[in-house]
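Hey,
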Amino acid sequence: MSLRIAMIGAGSIGFTRKLMHDILAVPELADTTFAFMDISERNLAMVQQLCERDIRANNLPAQIVATTDQREAIRDADYVICTIRQGGLEAFQTDIDIPLKYGVDQCVGDTLCAGGIMYGQRTIPALLDICRDIREVAKPDALFLNYSNPMAMNVWACNTYGDVPTIGLCHGVQGGHWQITRCIEHWAKQEGLIGPDETIHRREVDIICAGINHQTWYIQVQWRGMDMTPRMLELFEMHPAYPQTEKVRIDMIRRFGYYTTESNGHVSEYVPWYRKRVDEIPQWIDLSSWINGETGGYLRVCTEGRNWFETDFPNWLKEEPPVIDAAKRSEEHGSYIIEALETGRIYRGHFNVVNQNQITNLPNGCVIEIPGYVDKNGINMPVVGDLPLACAATCSASVRVQEMAVEAAVHGDITLLKQAMLHDPLTAAVCNPEEIWQLTDEMLVAQAKWLPQYADEAPKAAARLTEAERNGTRVKLRQTRGAARLAVKSVEEMAANKAEARANAAAADKGKMTKEPAH
């Protein structure tokens, strides 16, 4: 079978190269044509060179066509994969730095909170443009696989306003699944249920995980027929590392009774409890890794990774090309979904889809993350039922923020945008309404070039800021770098540990550098 797969945002080296390897590891997909598209000719050319070299070295019939023309990349595509970061690192910097002046201290800022909401305002118009091209020039019923954050907002907009079947894919469930597996393994050794040198693979631990992206809950965990769900707090507290690195998530098990998918740093910025007072933030985070809560940590590692790749790229071409092999496939869902749809081999994963009574105490129409099964008949999403009430309450608060943010992004509605900010759990815990109004205006002005839907509103926002400055009514800003911000390493500093720098630059999941390894 000869497929055409368009990869939009292909200048993202970690995702593009890894997803291509995963797909080509399936024998039936070895002659796939990949249409790489990126707005950066330089990034696109570097990724194309590496990937073409990998294909040649593995003697595969696959082909790559590269273009900066999105419509041409999508033309006749069977699948479209999106990994874009709209506004790049320049816009990302403002997602972190501007809210920080108002006391909103984020670790990642790409899903919820002030940074995530603005990221959605930039990304949704770009995704709707992709949807238009899919409708008009892709194969009939082409499937859109989205990896770009903010996941729930993006998938919501594409399915509601893009009129294209869109599935959101994330690796958060797999990461937490491995952590639970390591906890069970540690406990089982102490109980004498496995030998001291034995390991457990996550395939041996059965889970049901349900909620919304990055706020998904392991509502059922079983190992060897034993229900491990009630033991989660005990298992995590007795693990040798997690009480230090996962303080927020362990506290949430204590309060909720269930473990949540996303990393300590991620989840701390979706709820109002852990990052609202600067002097308390350090007690909830750990600086052994950015993902445990470092202020602006994801921005730092992304910046370092990009700087290193651009500097070190000639050496990448000199490396021995990797062997593309089924045993080396990553845990990213994309290749397995395509394989299942094309070959009929059944795949079970956790996907982001529109709620259609699958989670009965979250609104229909919102985007949920639940288990799904894929085969030649399509993507099938079973009914989960009710989430535990506390889990549903936390998700519901986020869902309503997402809904307002999506509507604001689609219609350029600044009132809805400010209301989304007003109802965001962490932003509201830190800021009063006038601070939120000014924060939104400032972000709108700073990001205006990526926000075409606000072309009429950005000058008005700038005028309001100027008037407040002149009248002395501008709210007081904070002079802070955040509770736990580390400096971006220079290329020279990164050169002291080239292996670590290269691992960062090549990683699709930058949390994998510090999460428990997949054995």
